[in-house]
Every structure is written in C-alpha cells, then in structure tokens.
C-alpha cells in the first residue's frame, strides 16, 4: 500500500499583508562595456557633412501699388520739388579738399568767413560804413542724388542744380570743381563767383590759368564775378590785362560760341576794390568812379580780344625763298 504523502503547509507571511514578488524597475538604461565600445566604433564611421550655405534672398522691390507716382504729377509741381531739393538762394560755397587721394571740393556754409583757415571776403555792399550788413541766409541742404533716380528726372532737374550761383574759394577749388563736373555739365553753369585770386609766387598761382582753361566749356555763363583782389595795379587797364592773361581761354571760347569776339566782356564783373589804390577794407576815395572804372576796364578787355582776332585773321604774304636755299 502506498503511503500518504505529506503536504507542506504554505509559509506564513510575516506581517499583516503578504509580500508580493515584483520586478525591480530601473529608471536608467544600463549599458555594458561592449556596447560602449561598439558605439565608439560606429561613431568613427560617421561622415560629417558641412551644412549647405543658404542663398541670399534677392531684395524684393516695392509693389507698384505702394510706389508714389512722382512722374505723373504736373510739371509745375515737379519743378517746385526740384527747386526745394536742388536750389539754394544763398549760393553754393565750395572749397578745395582731398578725399581718398583725390582732389575734389567740399561745400562750406555761407558763414565760413568766420571759420579758421579760410580767408575773409566781403562784398562791395559791406564796404560802406553807413549801410548795415544784411544777414546772410542760411544754406539749404541739397539732394543732388535726385538726378540719379531716372533719366527723365535727370533731364528735368539738372538745369536747376547747375543754375545755382557757385561761389568758389580760389582757382584751385574752381579747377577741382570743373574736373568733377566735366564738359557736359559745364555747359549748364550760369553764375560763377571767384572769391579769391591766387597771387604772388605760391604753388596755387598756376591754377589761375588752368582753371580758366577748363572753364572754356562753360560757354553759357551769364555772369562771372571776380570778388577778390587780383594783386595788380589799380588802374582799370591793368586789371583787364591781368584777367586777360589768365582767363583768355574762356573769353575766346565764349566769343567763338556767341559769334562775337568780345561777347564775354559784358559777362565779367570785377569787385570795385580792384580799382582803388588800397584794396583793404576802407571807404572809397573821392577820385574813384566805379562806373567809369568798369567802363574803362571793359574797353581795354575788348581791345585785347579784338587785337588777338585781327592777328589771327590777317594774311601776311609769305616771304619768297632765296635762290640757292
């Protein structure tokens, strides 16, 4: 007979509740050394490529419905805008300077007479002690870049810009200004004032003649004024000879363009201080007559121009060559 098997009683749990068998949870990943070595080996096989450069986006033009139709304005209104942007009633004062190793000009305010390094100039009206000097108008900020907007605006506004009165400090400034302008723009010039004359034996004296050689393209001038002292004798004929010696290229060019030899004589104005025995800021003496001096000056200048024309047009018989030569 088989003997009955003994059954084992289940273990008694200690405590109130029985202990459950739960799997232990880890909140981090376990890596073995072999996995680390494998990852290092795989990282060596990774090829790194540079990020492609982003192409620059082209500048988007302003939509047509947002642009102002400037050219559709009436011509009268456009001219008013041109006058405000390109015209200065006080004139444009220019002095020679150097920018990036290039000779050019810079604009000066009308009050530049009080700045150090610039000479003091006065007009004829300032020489009268009884008259009070008029306040100089403030210079207006111009926008010459307006001419580069379009061809139509350039054609409409260039005459206004070059129609200003350009007041040049000395012949060096005049030379630099005309080099920048070029022959085409020089044809548009209307009024030019030379505030100072280079005299004596300075280096800039050579620019007296060179500046007027470039001015030969400006045959449409309506006025050229010598404001400074010419450093010559005060007799009107000597003043005319001094101007003719250095300015004859422009004087003859105007005569050729106008069809009259002495056409430029009426365009030239000279400060009356040049007709006085002393050119310092003093009152006029009783023996001077501004109208008479100016008339004598123009007569002498016309005489010099006509004499040159007669010499060029005269036909002299050629000398016969001697026998045996």
From TrEMBL:
Region (Disordered), start-end ranges: 1-61, 108-141
Record's compositionally biased regions (Polar residues): 1-11
Domain 2EXR: 69-157
Superkingdom of the source species: Eukaryota
Entry-linked Pfam families: 2EXR (PF20150)
Biased composition (Basic and acidic residues): 123-139
Comp. bias (Basic residues): 50-61
Signal peptide start and end residues: none
Protein's recorded name: 2EXR domain-containing protein
Organism: Corynespora cassiicola Philippines
Organismal lineage: Eukaryota, Fungi, Dikarya, Ascomycota, Pezizomycotina
């Amino acid at each position: 007979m088989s003997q009955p098997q003994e059954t084992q009683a289940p273990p008694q749990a200690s405590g109130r509740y029985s202990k459950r068998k739960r799997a232990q949870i880890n909140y981090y990943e376990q890596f073995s050394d072999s996995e680390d070595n494998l990852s290092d080996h795989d990282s060596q096989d990774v090829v790194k490529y540079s990020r492609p450069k982003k192409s620059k986006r082209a500048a988007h033009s302003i939509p047509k419905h947002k642009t102002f139709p400037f050219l559709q304005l009436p011509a009268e209104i456009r001219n008013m805008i041109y006058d405000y942007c390109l015209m200065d009633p006080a004139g444009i004062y220019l002095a020679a300077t150097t920018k990036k190793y290039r000779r050019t000009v810079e604009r000066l305010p009308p009050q530049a007479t009080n700045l150090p390094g610039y000479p003091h100039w006065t007009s004829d009206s300032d020489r009268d002690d009884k008259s009070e000097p008029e306040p100089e108008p403030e210079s207006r900020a111009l926008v010459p870049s307006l001419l580069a907007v379009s061809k139509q605006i350039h054609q409409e506004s260039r005459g206004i810009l070059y129609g200003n009165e350009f007041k040049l400090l000395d012949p060096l400034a005049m030379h630099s200004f005309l080099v920048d302008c070029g022959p085409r723009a020089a044809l548009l010039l209307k009024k030019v004032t030379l505030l100072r004359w280079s005299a004596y034996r300075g280096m800039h004296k050579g620019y007296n003649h060179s500046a007027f050689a470039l001015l030969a393209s400006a045959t449409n001038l309506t006025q050229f004024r010598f404001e400074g002292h010419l450093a010559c004798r005060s007799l009107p004929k000597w003043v005319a000879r001094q101007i003719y010696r250095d300015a004859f290229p422009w004087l003859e060019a105007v005569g050729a363009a106008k069809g009259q030899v002495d056409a430029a004589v009426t365009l030239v104005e000279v400060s009356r201080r040049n007709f006085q025995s002393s050119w310092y800021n003093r009152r006029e003496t009783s023996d001077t007559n501004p109208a008479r001096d100016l008339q004598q000056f123009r007569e002498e200048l016309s005489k010099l121009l006509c004499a040159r024309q007669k010499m060029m047009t005269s036909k002299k018989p050629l000398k016969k060559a001697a026998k045996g030569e």
